[in-house]
Amino acid sequence: MTAIASPAPGDVIAKPQREPVLVVSDLRAYYQTHYFGIVREVRAVDDISLHINPDEIYGLAGESSCGKTTLIKTIAGAIQPPLNVVGGSVRFNFGGAPLDVYASTPQARNAIRWRHLSYIMQGSMSVLNPVRRVRQSFIDFAFRHIGQPMPQFIDTIVAHLERLHLQANVLDAYPHELSGGMRQRVTIALATVCRPEFIIADEPTTALDVVVQKGVLAMIRGIQREIGSSMLFVTHDLAVHANLTDRLGIMYAGRIVEEGPTAEIFRAPKHPYTANLIHSLPRIGDTAPKKGLDGVPPNLAEPPPGCRFHPRCPLAMDICRRENPAMEPSGPGRRVACFAVTRGEPS
Amino acid sequence: MSEPLLEVRNVCKAFGMGGLLARYRFAAVNDVSFTIEQDRHEIFTIIGESGSGKTTLARMILNLVPMTSGSIRFRGTDLATIRRPADRLAFMGHVQPIFQNPFEAFNPLKRVDRYLFTTARRFTDARSTGEVESRADLALRKVGLSLAEVKQRFPHELSGGQLQRVAVARSLISEPSLIVADEPVSMVDASIRMSIVNLFKTLRDDLNVSIIYITHDLATAYYISDRIMIMKKGEVVESGPARTVLADPQHPYSILLRNSVLSPDAKGELLEPQFSTTERDLAGTR
Ligand SMILES: Nc1ncnc2c1ncn2[C@@H]1O[C@H](COP(=O)(O)OP(=O)(O)OP(=O)(O)O)[C@@H](O)[C@H]1O
Ligand SMILES: Nc1ncnc2c1ncn2[C@@H]1O[C@H](COP(=O)(O)OP(=O)(O)O)[C@@H](O)[C@H]1O
Ligand code: SF4
Ligand SMILES: [Mg+2]
Ligand SMILES: [Mg+2]
Questions:
Q1: CA B70 to CA B78: how far, in whole Å?
Q2: Which residues of B152-191 are buried (b: 16+ CB within 10 A; e: fewer)?
Q3: Strand order in the sheet with A255-261
Q4: CB contact under 8 A, B218 and A177
Q5: Taking the CB of residue B268, how many other CB atoms lie within 10 A of it?
Q6: Which of A284, A294, A302 to probe the B interface (max B CBs under 10 A)?
Q7: How much distance in Å is there from the Cα of B136 to the middle of ligand 4?
Q8: End-to-end CA distance of chain A
Q9: By the CB < 8 Å criterion, does B274 face chain A?
Q10: Are B198 and A292 in contact (CB < 8 Å)?
Q11: Looking at CB atoms within 10 Å, which of A94, A214, B140, B165 has the fewest?
Q12: CB contact under 8 A, A291 and B195
């Protein structure tokens, strides 16, 4: 198959072009609140476009409060006021069944969503009911989908838990009796047991120790490979991205500022923010003083004009204070939103 | 020599796991001892596998849960003897916690600024609204936030990293001499992570605070700690000067830990599933 009609900007990698499973276009989602007559608008997702291919793990990185969770909530259709979609669209394509999340009725959305999509939320306790045993959560969540008689169903669950190195007796435990790491693995088991086509995971391994984390990541990768699902994997931990994701989007202040194959971004980051993130990583054996980024993350209720990174950017120019740099192609499979990069390159 | 700041002696904590196996008891913390000196302010790091009892140990040091056996002394006073409300309050002012998961540490129905105000009223002489607010703002500024940003907000309106910085700010209000930080940086990105651990360094060097730093992050542990203690299944398997231990771990578990750290320099190479055999029998079989 030739890729003459490239389906999405930036996707120049010579893979056989299958239709993306997810296309997000010009998405804007704001928290709109009214406190004592004062309207406050937090622009946590502000004009984001991206696509995710079948069988791909797309990573999303960025500092705390840049809007990662908001973006994936919006993609999952799991939003409620004060978060509102202000513009743009989120379109899934599950094996020929298209779903335009914000143009469908809630019923249609839910019917398709729960069959094909699974969302591992940030904070592991939230999906486990604290007053019910873990077994009950599995029954509530997966029994209908799996459609086996109870004894076989339990066998399926136990076999699945085993892959996450959890023993059958966690089914009898209450969530508070498990350590943070065990709870987190239980939620991952819950989210993957129905073999969804699309998995959204928000910081699923941040509560784990490094040994277990490595095992769980390998398991996530294994399941993803086995069922060929696509995955949107959010973590601020760049080392995880380096080891797990195929493509990476770097988010800053409600926008994606750089995107490309993960290994390429690590090899040669283009956006000054990405470069700072990658160079400030502490490594064992390294005691050279390392500073976080100077300045504070922008307040998304009043984002800086122009490039939102300009108050913290060592390369900021005049134009950066006035105009917002658009995401533009920059090398094979890569996009970046920075005047210093796109204006500096011969076009 | 003056009395140690903190003396943990042969501390054990057993839990009965009613839900898992009736009347089955196991040691979440088993015979742990260490000392933090009064006159040597340090960052003492505890690393260990999930479920190895780090949080349980932290909760005992904070006098939040009783131990099954052993003793913990703070400036010579046995924690078990601290009972009167006034003594408890004084102790809490000296030893402040930062908890693991900010989403669980904050009550979802309570505005986050209230936590700071309550803490300021309890532990400082601030009384008027203005004084209380300025204490809160001062503490928030030490962690790169400001009162304006968190005022009136509920926990779900802040991101994980913002919430954790509020937690650090709250712990600074009473000007404690010991901070017990249970995975304070697990939820935050590399940049804030560095600013929080650098903040710990400043607290140690300039404000004479000692810090018990519980973490999974070996890289920051290497970067800031003076001493380190590695735990597995409730027991200490190795301890010593942080850089020596991390550069050249001796115990098989420490070596596994060291080798499991994901390198940011790896190029998407496929991860080998590699579990310690002990991890398999984590749930209730010990
Ligand atoms: N209230 C409780 N009742 C029964 N068991 C408990 C209780 N609290 C903790 N445990 C058990 O004690 C052990 C230690 O738990 P703890 O949360 O202290 O581990 P941890 O080292 O902090 O782990 P993680 O890093 O995953 O959070 C675990 O096996 C856990 O299941
Ligand atoms: N319910 C809410 N109401 C108002 N603001 C919110 C709400 N939830 C999140 N925010 C704000 O939106 C921004 C992005 O938050 P979030 O998506 O949680 O970030 P991340 O996951 O990257 O840490 C932050 O500034 C946060 O304070
Ligand atoms: S556009 Fe300007 S301010 Fe923004 S990252 Fe590029 S150089 Fe820096
Ligand atoms: Mg988040
Ligand atoms: Mg813990």
A1: 10
A2: ebebebbbbbbbbbbbbbbbbbbebbbbbbbbbbbbbbbb
A3: A117-120, A198-202, A230-234, A57-61, A247-252, A255-261, A335-336, A328-329
A4: no
A5: 17
A6: A284
A7: 24
A8: 29
A9: yes
A10: yes
A11: A94
A12: yes
Nearest CA distance, A327 vs chain B (angstrom): 23
Inter-chain touch A177–B20, beta carbons under 8 Å: yes
Chain B residues near residue A285 by CB distance under 8 angstroms? 222, 247
What does the block give as tokens for B148? Answer: 């304006």
Tell me the nearest-neighbour CA distance from A98 into chain B, angstroms: 31
Which residue ranges form the domains of chain A, and what is each CATH number? 53-81+104-251 (3.40.50.300), 263-281+291-342 (no CATH)
Ordered by start, the domain boundaries in chain B are: 6-283
Per-residue pLDDT of chain B (286 residues; tens, 9 = 90+): 578 999 999 999 998 765 554 556 788 999 999 999 998 899 999 998 877 899 999 999 999 999 999 999 999 999 999 999 999 999 999 999 998 767 677 887 889 999 999 999 999 999 999 999 999 999 998 877 899 989 988 887 887 677 878 888 999 999 999 999 998 887 777 777 787 888 899 889 988 899 999 998 898 899 999 999 999 989 999 999 999 999 999 999 999 998 888 887 765 454 544 443 333 333 333 2
- Superfamily for the B6-283 domain: P-loop containing nucleotide triphosphate hydrolases (3.40.50.300)
Q: What residue's CA is closest to ligand 2, atom 10?
A: B157
pLDDT tens-digit profile of A97-126? Answer: 788 999 988 887 777 776 788 888 776 556
Structure tokens at A305: 């004009």
d(CA B270, CA A256) in angstroms, rounded, equals 26
Reduce the DSSP state of residue A200 to 3 states and report it: strand
Chain A residue whose CA is closest to B257: A211
d(CA A312, CA B132): 31
Joined together, the tokens standing for residue A222 give: 């294994």
Which of A124, A213, A277 is closest, CB to CB, to B191?
A277
Length in residues, chain A: 347
Residues of A in contact with B65 (CB under 8 A): none
